From TrEMBL:
Residues 24-66 form the CAP-Gly domain. GO terms for biological process: cell division. The gene is LOC106750282. The keyword Protein transport does not apply. Residues 215-249, 274-503, 988-1079, 1191-1218 form a coiled coil. This is Dynactin subunit 1. It holds the Pfam family CAP_GLY. GO terms for cellular component: centriole; dynein complex; microtubule; spindle. PROSITE patterns: CAP_GLY_1 (PS00845), CAP_GLY_2 (PS50245). Keywords: Cell cycle, Cell division, Coiled coil, Cytoplasm, Cytoskeleton, Dynein, Microtubule, Mitosis.
């Protein structure tokens, strides 16, 4: 069946449902995987594995699984049986279908059968299990044949396959579950492992083969009914016990569900509280932002206030300057006032002169023909008024001209805008034409598309053909998926086979190592024997020579005596040779031992000498020394446990058969049980020590020192191992040895690890699994051995104790299988010493505690069985009949006393207690095997990445190395601090001397300061008096100025009235002149009376012409006089101005500039000499005060250079003010710039405009310094 994205499935492993989000072949593992988004957070990821995202979901809601691990659900949420589409298609085909379809259906049926059947595992079986396996095979074949017959005949194939699947998943018996509800309520595998048959060729036979199989089936069923009944009875008994245990578990599950509901309500309350907290946090965040904004505004206001204060300071300075300027202006006004007084006196004199002239003229009767001075004055005033009007007309014309130019610019701008709009209009018209062409093209395309109905029909036919091809390809894909599933199953079976072969390879390698060791020992013995053979050959050669000599002496009478003596001598020589050879070997060993003892003594003395150099803190309790001893203790104890395990395994071999005679009369069973128990304790101790080693190599230095504080107690626990090694040396390790000391040692290290480190995540889980599985495996060996021995001692039917022993054997066998599968799935490189840190296999944090609890349960079972076995043997020996066993009732009583003795208050009876303990161990083993099977692919990938990371990162620093580096740094820092203290003492002495000198200088400076303050007070008082006097003078001058202004206004008003009267007179005269002209023209050509009148009018006209000429001459004279007066006034003003700088004074000014330049160059040289080329003090002098005096001298030189630079800058500023015309304000004591000059000196760059040019690249800014003309040009270019 092909799974698709969006379908709902059930995951039995996680006991929840979900939706398929991904189907494919990921990169983190081989084969086809399905990504599921679970409804509950029981997953492992969020759709992302190894940095690659396959789908997206919340954290711990996603997981990947195989197709066989999922169950498809329909829309109602019910399970659907997995029926492949190819098999359904094969049922619907007719007998006339082609051969490939039949082959494909047959292949799919085979794959489904293989998928339903578990993979066969090769293992060694005992002779007692062979008959049971044969019966299971026969019953399995019969069930397969009946299943095939029902597949051919009846339509209810799904129910039968479901029942078969339920029976195979159960694993305890061959009884089929009657209903689906029973299957749902009772799913617990792994109690009794039975072997299932593999692929049966008889399942795919034709009709004749089916009939023959039915006949064979009936015969076999009659033969095996009796045997199956016995098996079923025992299995029913086991199932009843399991049902009882399951009822108890269901009651516990109800209580857990109640707790779950309570926790769910608490979680909802916590979520509501979390929302409220988040809302309050958001409001607080808003308040915080508002407060920050207010703080920023306050800071900006503060900066603005500081700027305003700076501006006020500047205005105060400007006010002082304005005050000085006002004083100067007051002086100039006083001078002008005196001048105006003089002018007023002159004007009064002129007025008197005019009055006299007017009186004289009035007295003379108006006969004077020349113009009076009064008229001249009037004409001058009239000319001045005409001049003013001319100036106004000129200003008006200039204003009109400016207005005209402005309008001209506006017109040019409008013209440019009109031209730009014309260009845009042309562009838009071109765009409109282009769009019209495009619309025409699109219209043609639409017309062409309207006539494409035939093409649509052809495309529809092609679509139908492609749909048919897609359907065919889907069928092919389903077939390929079935093949892929089959290949995945074959790959899994091959992988399991590979793991088994690896385990066998490990065992073979261990055996090879043992054989190598035996071979080396045999070679040594062979070498010794060859030496002895050479010696014996030499001895035989000597004996042959002696024999020849003795043959020559046979004739003598004392031949018999000599022969006897020769034989004795030969035997003595042989014994002497063996003795000398043993002595030489013992001598070499003694020499080697002496050399090793010498090396050990030398190393011990070396360590003692090194410790004598260490500070007391190093040797204190819980210090670095104890930490080092702790790091040496852990591997030493591990090696001692390995020695004990190897010694006891070599001494006591495994037994092939356990019967009553071997239990009662021999000691091999007890010795093998002792070996298993001792190995279990040693492996348990190795488990705790490996946890210590991995954590101590990766923890912090503080944790290492804390663990080192417990070194004395741990060293005391080592004595138990030393006592066992001493017994092994004396060959006294036997079954009579008590185990309480080593059990206390194991419990001590387990409890100390939890006390010191708690639930540490730095434990090497690979080594933990290897050592823990070995511990439980050895304990199971001891338990099964004792159980088999007890079962051999039962007389007659076994009863409860016999069934208990049988259950113990089978359970121990299942536990051994689980432990072996978990141990062989651990990567070898993770369990080595190179992976002492970071070898995390994804186990729970309390896995160490689980192993310790399982070990305690195993120890209790072993003790119970040991007490029961000892009491049974004692009872048999007391009866005297060693061939007869004990009845089951008596053994049950002994078992009750033994369990009560071991379990104390936890005792529930021997059967229930031992089964409960075995259940705990079995659950741990099953969970461990399942966890390792799930994480196998991830371990392979993570192993590669960890190897790469290890090769890249290199070796990490252990806590002892970190502590050593810290100790080195502390010693170096103490040395540096001692040197610094010495230099600090010398500096303090120098500073004291300098302080005395500074105090003397300070006393002198205080005296000078007091004198300067007195002078300043007196000068300030004088300055205040002068200021008050100047204020009085200023007020008087202001009052006089106001009076003069009032008088000036009155005179101006009077003169204005005179001007108005003169203007009216002038108008009247002009009217008279016009009327006279008209009269002369109208009276031409009249009579004599008219002629006489014309003569008089002609005379009047001549008179007027003469008067006009005289007025013109007077006007020209007036211009000349005015020019002279203006020249005199201008000359007087020029004389009053300061003299210009003449070329003759340039040399003196240049001399000042040259002097300033010289001072500047000298200052630059001194600065370079002081800063760039500093003088190095002579360090060879013994006096330490010279360096300090050198620093003081250098600071004094730098301060002098700063003062010189400030003074030179002030001189340059004064000279610039002097040379700037009009930039100087007059003062008596110093040179001050005027307001414009000060503003020019403080002038900064002004940002006149900012031009932004569109650009796609990174933003850049350029500053351009421009003048007025450039700014105008830029403005015209941008806007006009």
């Amino acid at each position: 069946m092909s799974y698709k994205v969006g379908q709902r499935v059930e995951v039995p492993v996680k006991e929840c449902q979900g939706v398929i989000a991904y189907v494919g072949f990921p990169s983190f593992a081989s084969g086809k995987w399905i990504g599921v988004i679970l409804d509950e957070p029981k997953g492992k990821n969020n759709g992302t594995v190894k940095g690659k995202m396959y789908f997206n979901c919340a954290e711990n809601y996603g997981m990947f699984a195989r197709q066989a691990q999922l169950i498809l659900l329909d829309e109602a949420g019910n399970r659907t049986e997995p029926v492949s589409p190819s098999s359904a298609g094969s049922n619907a085909t007719t007998p006339d279908d082609s051969g490939p379809a039949r082959a494909r259906s047959r292949l799919n049926s085979i794959s489904t059968r293989r998928r339903n059947e578990p993979t066969a595992v090769r293992r060694k079986t005992s002779p007692a299990n062979i008959t049971r396996q044969q019966a299971d095979k026969l019953s399995g074949s019969r069930l397969s044949l009946t299943g095939s017959r029902t597949l051919l005949s009846a339509p209810s194939t799904e129910s039968l396959s479901g029942s078969l699947h339920e029976r195979r998943d159960g694993g305890e018996s061959l009884i089929p579950a009657p209903t689906s509800t029973k299957r749902a309520s009772f799913i617990e595998t792994g109690f009794v492992e039975t072997l299932k048959p593999q692929f049966v060729p008889g399942q795919a036979m034709a009709g004749s083969a089916v009939v023959a199989a039915n006949l064979m089936e009936e015969k076999l069923s009659h033969m095996q009914l009796a045997q199956e009944n016995d098996n079923l009875k025992s299995q029913v008994h086991d199932l009843t016990e399991k049902v009882e245990t399951l009822r108890v578990k269901r009651m516990q599950d109800k209580e857990r569900m109640k707790d779950f509901e309570k926790t769910k309500l608490q979680i909802e309350q916590l979520i509501e509280f979390k929302t409220k907290v988040m809302e309050s946090q958001a409001s607080l965040q808003r308040d915080l932002q508002r407060a920050r904004q207010e703080a920023r505004e306050a800071h900006a206001a503060r900066e603005q206030f500081q700027e305003e204060m700076a501006d006020l300071a500047e205005t105060v300075e400007m006010a002082t300057l304005d005050k000085e300027m006002a004083e100067e202006k007051a002086e100039t006004l006083q001078i002008e006032l005196e001048q105006l007084k003089d002018k007023l006196e002159e004007q009064t004199l002129d007025l008197e002169i005019l009055r006299t002239e007017m009186s004289e003229r009035a007295a003379g009767g108006g006969s004077a023909t020349g113009a009076s001075s009064y008229e001249i004055k009037q004409l001058e005033q009239q000319n001045s008024r005409l001049r003013e009007t001319l100036v106004r007309m000129r200003d008006l014309s200039a204003h009109e001209k400016h207005e005209f130019q402005k309008l001209q610019k506006d017109m040019d701008q409008k013209k440019s805008e009109i031209m730009e709009l014309g260009r845009t209009k042309e562009k838009l018209s071109a765009r409109v034409e282009e769009m019209e062409h495009q619309i025409a093209d699109l219209q043609e395309q639409v017309d062409a598309a309207l006539g494409a109905e035939e093409m649509v029909e052809m495309l529809g036919e092609k679509k139908m053909a492609l749909e048919e091809k897609v359907a065919e390809l889907q069928e092919a894909v389903s077939d390929l998926e079935a093949l892929q599933d089959m290949s995945d199953q074959l790959a899994e079976s091959s992988k399991e086979l590979e793991l088994e072969l690896r385990e066998e390879l490990d065992l073979a390698l261990g055996a090879a190592r043992d054989a190598q060791r035996h071979r080396d020992a045999a070679l040594e013995t062979l070498a010794d024997r060859e030496l002895t053979i050479v010696k014996f050959r030499e001895l035989t050669h000597q004996m042959q020579e002696q024999y020849l000599q003795l043959q020559q002496r046979v004739q003598s009478t004392e031949s018999t005596k000599t022969n006897v003596r020769g034989a004795d001598q030969q035997l003595a020589e042989i014994l002497d040779f063996q003795k000398t050879f043993a002595e030489t070997r013992a001598q070499t060993k003694a020499v080697d031992l002496e050399l090793r003892r010498l090396d050990a003594d030398e190393a011990r003395n070396h360590v003692c000498h090194l410790l004598s150099f260490m500070p007391p803190a190093f040797l204190a309790r819980g210090g670095d020394h104890d930490a080092i001893l702790m790091l040496l203790l852990i591997p030493r104890m591990t090696q001692k446990t390995e020695i004990l395990i190897s010694q006891v395994r070599e001494k006591y071999r495994s037994i092939e058969k356990i019967d009553r005679a071997s239990v009662i009369r021999g000691h091999s069973v007890a010795q093998y049980s002792f070996r298993s128990r001792l190995c279990s304790h040693m492996y348990s101790l190795q488990t705790a020590l490996s946890c210590f080693e991995s954590v101590l190599n990766s923890c912090s230095p503080e944790m290492l020192l804390k663990a080192g504080n417990a070194y004395p107690e741990m060293a005391a626990q080592e004595k138990s191992l030393d006592s066992l090694i001493e017994l092994a040396k004396r060959d006294q390790l036997d079954e009579n040895l008590p185990m309480e000391a080593i059990e206390k040692c194991c419990a001590y290290f387990a409890t100390m690890f939890s006390v010191l480190f708690g639930e540490s995540t730095a434990v090497n889980q690979a080594r933990l699994i290897v050592n823990g599985t070995r511990t439980l495996g050895s304990a199971c060996d001891a338990i099964s051995t004792d159980a088999t021995a007890i079962k051999a001692l039962i007389q007659g039917e076994g009863g409860d104790i016999g069934l208990l022993c049988q259950h113990v054997e089978t359970t121990c066998e299942v536990i051994q299988q689980h432990l072996k599968s978990a141990r062989r799935r651990v990567p070898r490189d993770h369990a080595g010493p190179a992976f002492s840190v970071g070898a995390n296999l994804g186990l729970d944090k309390d896995c160490n505690e689980q192993f310790s609890t399982s070990y305690q349960h195993a120890v209790k079972i072993v003790k119970t069985l040991q007490y029961l076995l000892k009491s049974a043997l004692q009872a048999i020996t007391e009866n005297g009949d060693l061939d007869t066993g004990l009845p089951a009732d008596k053994l049950k009583e002994m078992a009750a006393t033994s369990s009560e003795k071991v379990y104390d208050t936890e005792d529930l009876g021997p059967v229930a207690t031992i089964k409960a303990s075995l259940t705990v161990i079995q659950q741990l083993a099953a969970n461990l095997a399942q966890k390792m099977a799930e994480c196998e692919n991830e371990l392979a990938i993570s192993g590669q990445t960890q190897n790469q990371q290890q090769s890249l990162e290199g070796e990490q620093l252990t806590p002892i190395l970190i502590r050593a580096n810290a100790a080195r740094k502390e010693s170096e820092e103490t040395k540096i601090l001692s040197r610094k203290l010495e230099t600090r003492d010398s500096d303090i002495r120098e500073a004291r001397l300098a302080l005395r000198e500074k105090q003397e200088e300070l006393s002198e400076m205080t005296l000078r300061k007091e004198l300067a303050e007195k002078r300043f007070i007196t000068q300030q008082h004088e300055h205040e008096m002068n200021v008050e006097q100047l204020k009085r003078k200023l007020e008087e001058a202001q009052n006089q100025l106001k009076r003069k202004e009032k008088e000036f206004e009155e005179t101006m008003d009077h003169l204005q009235t005179d001007i108005d009267s003169l203007e009216t007179e002038k108008g009247q005269l002009k009217e008279k002149l016009k009327s006279i002209g008209k009269k002369t023209l109208s009276t031409v050509g009249a009579d004599s009376i008219a002629g006489s009148t014309s003569l008089t009018s002609a005379m009047d006209n001549k008179y007027y012409v003469q008067e006009i000429n005289a007025l013109r001459e007077a006007l020209s004279n007036e211009h000349l006089q005015k020019k002279k007066i203006m020249c005199a006034v201008l000359r007087q003003k020029l004389d009053s101005l300061e003299p210009l700088s003449s070329p003759t004074s340039l040399k003196a000014l240049d001399s000042t500039i040259q002097e300033l330049r010289k001072k500047t160059t000298d200052l630059v040289k001194d600065v370079q000499k002081t800063l760039v080329y500093p003088t190095v003090p002579d360090l060879r002098r013994k006096l330490p005060e010279t360096s300090y005096h050198y620093l003081l001298e250098r600071r004094r030189n730098i301060m002098q250079l700063k003062e010189r630079a400030d003074e030179l800058a002030a001189q340059v500023r004064r000279e610039a003010i002097k040379r700037t015309p009009g930039g100087r304000a007059e003062a008596n004591f110093a040179v001050y710039p005027n307001r414009e000059m000060a503003a020019a000196m403080r002038e900064r760059k002004l940002l006149a405009a900012e031009i932004k040019i569109p650009y796609n690249g990174p933003e850049r800014s350029f500053s351009v310094n421009v003048g007025t003309q450039e700014l105008r040009k830029i403005h015209t270019l941008l806007y006009y």
